[in-house]
Amino acid sequence: MADMDAFRDEIARWAAGGAGDTAAELAADLGLRTAVLLEGPSDLAAVEALAAREDRDLSAEGVAVVSMGGAMSVGRYAGLLGPPGLGLRLTGLCDAREEPFYVRGWQRAGAARDFHVCVADLEDEMIRALGPERVEQVIRSEDELRPWQTFLAQPAQHGRPRHQQLRRFLSTRKGRKIRYGSLLVEALDGGRPPAPLADLLAGL
User: Fold this and answer.
1) How far apart are the C-alpha atoms of 199 and 91, rounded to whole Å?
2) I need a surface site. Which of 64, 69, 130, 144 has the fewest CB within 10 A?
3) Per-residue pLDDT tens over the stretch 94-104
């Protein structure tokens, strides 16, 4: 049976210059109709966590959620997965500063513009949706109170708004953004996700 992780691996190899035959075969076996292009793995974790919270199986719905390893790869991925390549419908999520890359990628692929933009990035959106106090509760529940306090004691953090401190903290350790990508979605506890994330999932 075709596997979504195998498809993602083949797409990454194809984007790096390999052949696309296996990716095309897997796409057909999976019945894919839509590709969600995301900048990185923390965004992927958040999208998958929100889908799980809503009891949705995106793979079964023919949706491939793909982490590209950076917005500058969007032109390549849009070409491979969109109309010039596998012919999938394209959608996605990006940071405001990376929006021009997405615009050009969609244009070059000949795809209708269909992606959602975060004000700064998805972590920023999640912190604003939850509020700093709730995010700090999540940090404590993950036994990261000491690293958080150590971070706050750094001179560079003195006087900065708590929202900015939290956003920076999530990026200070390898793998932390990915882990909190799903944890912050789970912490919504039935509340509405940030608009870009909610709108992305609603449109799938």
Assistant:
1) 11
2) 69
3) 999 999 999 99
Q: In the block, which residue shows the tokens 């615009």?
A: 103
Closest CA to 178 of 39, 13, 75: 39
Spatial separation of the C-alpha atoms in residues 56 and 74, rounded to whole Å: 26
Model confidence over 153-173: pLDDT tens digits? Answer: 999 999 999 999 999 999 999
With helix as H, strand as E and coil as C, how does the chain read?
CCCHHHHHHHHHHHHCCCCCHHHHHHHHHHCCCEEEEECCHHHHHHHHHHHHHCCCCCCCCCEEEEECCCHHHHHHHHHHHCCCCCCCEEEEEEEHHHHHHHHHHHHHHCCCCCCEEECCCHHHHHHHHHCHHHHHHHHHHCCCHHHHHHHHCCHHHCCCCHHHHHHHHCCCCCCHHHHHHHHHHHCCCCCCCCHHHHHHHHCC
Contact 34, 91 (CB under 8 A): yes
- pLDDT < 50 regions, the chain: 1
CA–CA gap between residue 100 and residue 108 (Å, rounded)? 12
Structure tokens that stand for 14 in this block: 């194809």
